[in-house]
Amino acid sequence: MKLSALHQSYLNRRSNSFRSPTSLDSSVDGSGKSLIAVFWLILHCLCCLISLVLGFRFSRLVFFFLFSTSSTNLYSAPFRPDLPVKHLDVHTIGRNLDPGANGTVAMATKSSRVVVGRHGIRIRPWPHPNPVEVMKAHGIIERVQKEQKTIFGMKSSKMVIAVTPTYVRTFQALHLTGVVHSLMLVPYDVVWIVVEAGGATNETGLIIAKSGLRTIHVGIDQRMPNTWEDRSKLEVFMRLQALRVVREEKLDGIVMFADDSNMHSMEFFDEIQNVKWFGTVSVGILAHSGNAEEMVMSMDKRKEMEKEEEEESSSLPVQGPACNSTDQLIGWHIFNTLPYAGKSAVYIDDVAAVLPQKLEWSGFVLNSRLLWEEAENKPEWVKDFGSLNENEGVDSPLSLLKDPSMVEPLGSCGRQVLLWWLRVEARADSKFPPGWIIDPPLEITVAAKRTPWPDVPPEPPTKKKDQMPLSQGNTVVKSSSPPDTANITSNGEENKTGKIRLR
Amino acid sequence: MKLSSWVLIFLLCNLTFLSSISAFRLSRSQPTERISGSAGDVLEDNPVGRLKVFVYELPSKYNKKILQKDPRCLNHMFAAEIYMQRFLLSSPVRTLNPEEADWFYVPVYTTCDLTPNGLPLPFKSPRMMRSAIQLIASNWPYWNRTEGADHFFVVPHDFGACFHYQEEKAIGRGILPLLQRATLVQTFGQRNHVCLKEGSITVPPYAPPQKMQSHLIPEKTPRSIFVYFRGLFYDVGNDPEGGYYARGARAAVWENFKDNPLFDISTEHPTTYYEDMQRAIFCLCPLGWAPWSPRLVEAVIFGCIPVIIADDIVLPFADAIPWEDIGVFVDEKDVPYLDTILTSIPPEVILRKQRLLANPSMKQAMLFPQPAQPGDAFHQVLNGLARKLPHERSVYLRPGEKLLNWTAGPVADLKPW
């Protein structure tokens, strides 16, 4: 079908109509044949030269004007203005040039409306998408997908109960908005239980209200400590509080733990619908600190280390169920913390890798009926939640079970990584405007100590306007050159609260 | 004798039924609809017992040696001729007794002379065909008995038995004069075209079944692409200005819809081509240099509704498969309004088309699996041949009557091969 230039030379195509007299018609006598051939050759060369000068197929244009039939159509807005856009019937041309053409050629065009030859490229006057049609198409896509869901998808879907421990800090809005968007995309019913350390604040309340989901905002009085160790302990306490809420309200669905800095894939929510009582999924662990320079350095260091030491078995950064060949749960994969021994972050804003616990809560999902006081068919291998003693040390959801081997591995037995664990926090002394809204707008511009952009462009000549009298006695800092560190450090840190715009 | 043959046939049917359980399973749980074309509900007919085919034993220079010289012929889209022979040699419809045969098959591989790029050159094919026919005419009496009217040939090239890749030249040559009375099994089909003889059987081009099955994705993956197409819009090597290739239809698709978010069209060769087709609702199947293309087969296998942009095309097994109900036909002149046409199709019609496409017998009929399975393209060809039986009385010539002109055609074709 696709013809290469190899056996279809350009010359062949161009001289298509000219060669037919010599090849097909052998009845013309010899001398006349050579005269006609010479004449066509000269004409052909002339047309070639003219086409070379003009830049389009002059010969076709000539024949069009000489032998045009009534079936020519000119199309509006031709995209290629150099191309003589016309509908040619090559057989009429062929017939004029080649009086001895086969009768079959005429037969092809007699009753068929399809003709061979050069056709125009039809372009409509406004070749751009029509919004009404785009919407109709999306309606069709939705209908098709709905049909697919009813045929192949879940017959009955359970509600998703998301449990998120959080507290107010610089990156809270960043992380929590990610969770908001993930939960908004979930195609099932969602109840979101947000437990906040330091009491339920408006800040958090505003973020979760934007989701439009049914939320239960619980506050606990303790403030979040500033070491990772203590933080995870408090988070466990907060999650258990949320589970108590599930038990009291008798919420019916599947409980999953959506830590606010984790990333969830939509397949995760589809997969957990398959859980019967207690399931576990594989969690990808991103144990880097998030500091770009640190990461680059550690990458280089790591490469050096790899070259020096032979083969450290590469640790898969995945925490999740381990199965044998018959897809039965035999244990758990744990994140290998040995490479980070002694180098991990202790305080929340340490510039070092943050390590996960042995088994993160986010990798487990449970049927909410396990937590109820009275539920039919509740399996015996589950401890009664009401009588759980927290002081005994609950470090992972497995403490809720008497028999951990009854856990169901999900995501094709842990082979699919459905969510990603990450802990990134800003510096402890970082400040941020409440609600991340700067109102009224700031009046002072200060160049930051470190910018990701190597060359800060010079200030535009409207600098004079910046020097107009200000309402308060704040000094005006000229920032015409790249980081004027002397100027800035003398004024104090760039992180001062108040009306300073950070660039 | 008769009873035992009926018992044998009954047992054979049972065996084929049992083997169909392990057959090429493509549609798993989607509800489907029965397909019945203009010839009735014939897709699942079993040709065994309805006809007998005699396969000529040609010297291997016509088939095996050609294949040995270039084994790429087994994988390209013209491989149907090779697999047809292999299927017939071991099929129950084959008979070794030519006296009782209804149809005669001539296994000659005319589309196996490949360029280094893999494209078949048709320049020697007429001579090869002619030489094969001369051979069978001189060694067996069956050709002269009917002048080939009960013989069939597989000619899967671009324009069938016109043996040329360029349409004008193909039209100029016409069908090989010696094949005037034979039945042609070809991929090319266009109404009122010289190269489509009346009574020809149109088959789909060969597409490798294993390759397609290995790219299946879970059926619950939602179809999120509205229109999908991958291929050339302008054939810059052979038609730099555009307007010749595909009669300007592909170029029109590009110019009108290149910035339309609903149309996922490009000239790239992605590795996820088959997977993407399974995520699309409509797949464009425009004409190229010839009106047919393997895209139709791929679209049917992957459940994507084919949008056929080729005026007057005759689709494979047109009497057995109601293509109007399954695909969407768009005239070449309506290509600029393709988005309006496609979005104005009611969703119920689209769902019905998808149900028809999900019918396993539909998918099976488009394939040439090895070994052959019931309902596949081989069987549809035999069904088509069986529907043409019994031969009319006029097929058999009176002694001494000659209808074919053995010296017709271009002089170059008369040279021996």
Question: Could you explain how this protein is built, in words?
Answer:
The complex is a heterodimer of chains A (503) and B (417). With 503 residues, chain A is α/β, with parallel strands linked by helices. In chain A, 34% of the residues lie in helices and 14% in strands. Chain A is built from 15 helices and 14 strands. The longest helix of chain A is centred in the first third of the chain and has 25 residues, at 30-54. Chain A is elongated, with a radius of gyration of 37 Å. Chain B is α/β, with parallel strands linked by helices and 417 residues long. Chain B folds into two domains: 53-206 and 374-391, no CATH class; 209-366, Rossmann fold, CATH 3.40.50. Chain B contains 15 helices and ten strands. Chain B has helices at residues 2-21, 64-69, 80-89, 125-139, 142-146, 167-173, 209-213, 249-257, 273-277, 295-301, 323-326, 338-343, 347-358, 360-365, 377-387, and strands at 53-55, 103-105, 151-155, 183-186, 201-202, 225-230, 263-266, 280-286, 305-309, 328-329. Chain B has a five-stranded parallel β-sheet with strand order 1-2-3-4-5. A five-stranded parallel β-sheet of chain B has the order 7-6-8-9-10. In chain B, strand 8 (280-286), helix 10 (295-301) and strand 9 (305-309) form a beta-alpha-beta unit. The model of chain B is unreliable at 18-27 (pLDDT under 50). The interface between A and B is large, with 61 and 72 residues.
Brief sketch in words of this structure:
Chain B: InterPro entries: Exostosin, Exostosin_GT47. The complex is a heterodimer of chains A (503) and B (417). Chain A has 15 helices and 14 strands.
